[in-house]
Amino acid sequence: MMHPTADAGFGVYVHWPFCASKCPYCDFNSHVRHAPVDEARFVAAFATEIAHRAELAPKRTVTSIFFGGGTPSLMQPATVGAILDAIGRHWPVDAHVEISLEANPTSVEAERFRGYRAAGVNRVSLGVQAMNDADLKALGRRHTAEEAMGAVGIAASIFDRFSFDLIYARPNQTPAAWATELKEAIARAAEHLSLYQLTIEPGTWFHKLHQAGKLVVPDDEVGRALYDVTQDVCAARGLPAYEISNHAAAGAQCRHNLVYWRYGEYAGIGPGAHGRLVTGQGRLAMETELVPETWLAHVEKRGHGLVDVEVLSQEAQGDEYLLMGLRLKEGIDPMRYRALSGRTLDPQRITDLVEHGMIECHANGRISVSPAGFPVLNAVVADIAA
Amino acid sequence: MSEQPIDTIRNFSIVAHIDHGKSTLADRLIQMTGALTDREMSEQVLDSMDIERERGITIKAQTVRLEYPAKDGKTYILNLMDTPGHVDFAYEVSRSLAACEGSLLVVDASQGVEAQTLANVYQAIDAGHEIVPVLNKVDLPAAEPDRVKEQIEEVIGLDASNAIPISAKTGLGIPDVLEAIVTRLPPPRGDRDAPLKALLVDSWYDAYLGVVVLVRIVDGVLKKGMTIKLMGTNAIHGVDKIGVFRPKMVDVAELGPGEVGFLTGSIKEVADTAVGDTINDAKRPCAEALPGFKPVQPVVFCGLFPVDAADFENLRAAMGKLRLNDASFSYEMETSAALGFGFRCGFLGLLHLEIIQERLEREFNLDLISTAPSVIYKLRMRDGTAIELHNPADMPDVMKIEEIEEPWIRATILTPDDYLGSVLKLCQDRRGEQVDLNYVGKRAMVTYDLPLNEVVFDFYDRLKSISKGYASFDYQITEYRPGDLVKMSILVNAEPVDALSMLVHRARAESRGRAMCEKLKELIPPHLFVIPIQAAIGGKIIARETVRALRKDVTAKCYGGDATRKRKLLDKQKEGKKRMRQFGKVEIPQEAFIAALKMDS
């Protein structure tokens, strides 16, 4: 296998923008529709957009595909299959391609798991979010803990690989309670867990409540304690963090997300999808229309749903590499940073950050954020990038 | 223009507290005498700068010549002299008043007499003015004209029985004011045949005309083409143009005794024209200069630094431009270890400082950091020499200093009785010495001697806040007194921040130091490491606080491959860092400098 930064792989991200209901913490591009979605029309539009990207960035070998959302597990398995076929028609696909799909752990959706497997999906990521019903309700989830564990069981029996998400730093959560919950989760999760701290994002219902003082989240001190517990419990149970919020057993990392974090190339297909493709113009940052119906109309009229394409400056590429790469335990390669940005990292800042215990410089030349630095990653990145 | 008989000239100014309606009354007088058509009237014609309009204060003296046909059948020339209305410009005010024979004392009929009114009316009385009291806003329901009349008589000692009730807003009573100017104020006196003697009232820079000098003729005649001499500087200038303000500039052939107008000529800079100087005919000089001339002396100093070091040259250019029009503001280059290149600036007072800073930021689009305002300390050294210290950073070795003297002021404060206790406490806390305490109806008039260095820090803000805005304040510098003053340094992460060092009284050092450390603790954002903040006198630490290290700052989830959003956040962070100053390893937001100096204790 080649060195990961020499070839971070080529990923295709497919965004399914619909949800049965909007979760109060979520600021992703998701939409609730009461009329049934015309999936065939979407399949055609996805295929058109795939063709468009393949023309821009031909001859890549697809190493990963990720169905995100929204709620991709609301799609019919045939829809998933048709999109995968379209990808296969335009790019060669690696024999060991990782095909992930995000799913809600409801019993209804679990019934479609076998169909997804048949369509080619080999990894699911389940939005479990909490292991008790009270917190699930508070988070606006439509499933119970038992139902979620049932879905996890079904996923485990069907897919080679699966992961699930939990949200922590919930209102009133204590480090002790979280440790217990986390241990229970690890026992079920086997190889991969995504553990996200609840963040109050502008535009969400939680944000409104928070502004009004009706939702109190743990302060930085408790947030920090919860983060520390997370690292300790996961590491002790064989799921160390390979990224700031993602934990995996050896070899079980999500290869698709690594494409982002290693600042590789990826095509973003569907409403509100982001992509980074290197073309003759340079590295392009691409963004599609957010509203599903408008995106459809754009694609049908223009052959793509892009609303923003920016040729990234060297500085912007360097910044993105730092932002993405420093999330990873493996860190960044300063030589690649120099190649992307045309600049070198300020040695004084690096020395200061090492001295403060925030980063580590490795014998192979790589720089990574230390365990003490990860909880304050944004400040560390800003310091390095300044 | 034909020669104006001197007995048909009236020169007057308007004395009023801010908001009591001086500018509105001036507008009405201009309107009613037809100097401007209604269409030309923009609100408050005389205050032409944005800042003046916003703050309702006048910085430069201005004048307008009105023609008023009086009831006696004669047409009078009324020169309204609008004076700067703030204690910082006390000297400029005194010169404007010297150009007039009388004043209208405008008092808000509901608010009553304020400290600023008092100071200005006493100046007018000192200038030998006849005073006509005018009660403004009598149409408001809260107006109490009888009570305010009593107050004028009690506090100022003026006969207020003939006070004119008006409403400058509605125009009520304005004809009575015009008639009173003619009948109750005296005409100027002067000898048309004597050598030219004129008062330089003020001057400013006009982009088209160059320096415009506002003059009041005392004796003789000023004519176009004359060569004049400024007695203070002995400089000689040709006169290109003479005119009057109506309020637009209108050229005239000559100005005779008692008249007020302008001249332009070969004068390059406003700095060449000292307010209060006497103007002569170079060929026929007069024997004596007019009394009262003083060169301007800055009283308050502070350092002004560009937030972005690249703006240094722009700042220099901007200061040059401002000084073109304001010779009372001085600047010289300064370097600070913390703030880089900037300027040490001198001002007439705190308001003057604020105005200049605001104009630099607003008119020249500069972001500035200002250091702690300082007064001028007089240092007597052991070796017998004397030093004037403008900048605490320049403080010599204490072992070499025999004694430090600091300027004191006499402050007059008028406050409603309810707040008297707090006002007295504030003055005591600031090392004040009570001189007098009187009651004027329900309001107390307190006179205090205070060290100016205690006043330059937010004294006025504090006074306003403890009195809910009701107390008014005025001061004049009285004397230098020895004081037990020490230099207090502020150390951030063990490194002294020169821009925050200050001279304080030993007895006040600890509380000031503690307050400063507490404030900085709030203002310095958490870093990746713990930051000690200390206040020290010499090597002795007198106060200490700690900024905790950052505990959590992380974006947990990353949506798909949306690196753009994260990059935009990073750009914002970078932008924020640009507005910070690097002190060793610590970044201090520029707001911290301004806020740190505003003490609330």
Automatic annotation (TrEMBL), chain A:
Transmembrane segments: none annotated. GO terms for cellular component: cytoplasm. Its cofactor is [4Fe-4S] cluster. It is found in: Cytoplasm. One of its GO terms (biological process) is porphyrin-containing compound biosynthetic process. The keyword Cytoplasm applies. GO terms for molecular function: 4 iron, 4 sulfur cluster binding; coproporphyrinogen oxidase activity; metal ion binding. InterPro entries: Aldolase_TIM, Coproporphyrinogen-III_oxidase, Elp3/MiaA/NifB-like_rSAM, HemW-like, rSAM, rSAM_sf. It comes from the Bacteria. Keywords: 4Fe-4S, Chaperone, Cytoplasm, Heme, Iron, Iron-sulfur, Metal-binding, S-adenosyl-L-methionine. Probably acts as a heme chaperone, transferring heme to an unknown acceptor. Binds one molecule of heme per monomer, possibly covalently. Binds 1 [4Fe-4S] cluster. The cluster is coordinated with 3 cysteines and an exchangeable S-adenosyl-L-methionine. Belongs to the anaerobic coproporphyrinogen-III oxidase family. HemW subfamily. PANTHER family: COPROPORPHYRINIGEN III OXIDASE, RADICAL S-ADENOSYL METHIONINE DOMAIN-CONTAINING PROTEIN 1, MITOCHONDRIAL. This is Heme chaperone HemW. The lineage of its organism: Bacteria, Pseudomonadati, Pseudomonadota, Alphaproteobacteria, Hyphomicrobiales.
From TrEMBL, chain B:
The lineage of its organism: Bacteria, Pseudomonadati, Pseudomonadota, Alphaproteobacteria, Hyphomicrobiales. This is Elongation factor 4. It catalyses: GTP + H2O = GDP + phosphate + H(+). It is a peripheral membrane protein. CDD domains: EF4_II (cd03699), EF4_III (cd16260), LepA (cd01890), lepA_C (cd03709). It comes from Chelatococcus asaccharovorans. InterPro entries: EF-4, EFG_III/V, EFG_V-like, EFTu-like_2, G_TR_CS, LepA_C_sf, LepA_CTD, LepA_IV. NCBIfam families: lepA (TIGR01393), small_GTP (TIGR00231). It holds the Pfam family GTP_EFTU. Residues 7-189 form the Tr-type G domain. Belongs to the TRAFAC class translation factor GTPase superfamily. Classic translation factor GTPase family. LepA subfamily. GO terms for molecular function: GTP binding; GTPase activity; guanosine tetraphosphate binding; ribosome binding; translation elongation factor activity. Coiled coil: none annotated.
